[in-house]
Amino acid sequence: MDQIAPRLTRAAVWTRDGVDIREMKIPELGPGEVLVRVSLATVCGSDLHTVSGRRDAPCPSILGHEAVGRVVAIGSGANPEVVGECVRPLAVGDRVVWSVTVPCHRCLRCAKGFTAKCVNVRKVGHESAHGPWTLSGSYAAHIVLPSGTAISLVPDSLPDAVAAPAACATATVMAALEAAGDLTDKRVLIYGAGMLGVTAAAAATEAGAVVQMVEPNPLRQSQSHQFGASDDDGRLLADIAIDFSGAPAAVNAALQRLDLGGRLVLAGSVSPGPAVAVDPEDVVRRWLTITGVHNYEPRHLGQAVAFLAATSEKYPWATLVDEPVPLDAMEDVLQPPLSPVVLRSSVAP
């Protein structure tokens, strides 16, 4: 490990009964491992699901997987994986975001290109604090990124509050839009104006689509206008529908709104819920395609950073993230933001 790297750090450890702020040892880095000083972490909805009991997760653990920080030290003997438009060897001092998933790169799924669904996958912010990867979450002053973690360099011009969601929300949107196919001149319906929905509205607009948003909250619906969406007129037959809400009623409605040859991309159905009826004859006669996206691949992380950098002055990304709290107040932000138009709470460890 680099001699300037600290030996101890502070972390917010989730215990099911709450959050303990603990001093933890920083381990010696193995080949290709990276120690990052976390600058800012945003609170993703999946972490809210974990603390509310809607999502099963190891415990105790350090949660948090949307974050930005600077490289403090790099383990010798292997080169970390750098993805994106700027690809060069990683260096101490680099400002970075990193992938949620850490694949083995050896299993059949990895060989097929589905590294996000690796049989042996490990996930940032989803590992036990008592396991071999103790500093695995971003709600800490430091995080250790194992060898094989995809890392993307972040330009200093991109504010922390804009860069951090690239690691989950923005990269997931890039994967969802890739699954949607060519968006040029396409009619796109987006269900759910949360962080993923408004990001998808902007990205689809930039790709040449005409975007309408379906969102029950009028404040969020109005906010989506700033990101390229117009209101759903209830009549548009869509070439593409993308659901980020996870609501069965929304999925069913999206199916009914697809035009001949339409495609439905499901990205919000990440917890158990009622089944949605699909009429096979209707799918056949209308040439429909239904596909799902869960997590993302390394290329999508690089695309996310590039997209945010290219649109940082066009869309008000920073307004979607609340002012950060210190690590000691971590428990206060493990709940939905008070304002419906603030889509992410944040912490500055």
TrEMBL record:
Its cofactor is Zn(2+). InterPro entries: ADH-like_N, ADH_phosphonate_catab-assoc, ADH_Zn_CS, GroES-like_sf, NAD(P)-bd_dom_sf. Its EC number is 1.1.1.1. Residues 30-152 form the Alcohol dehydrogenase-like N-terminal domain. Keywords: Metal-binding, NAD, Oxidoreductase, Zinc. Belongs to the zinc-containing alcohol dehydrogenase family. This is alcohol dehydrogenase.
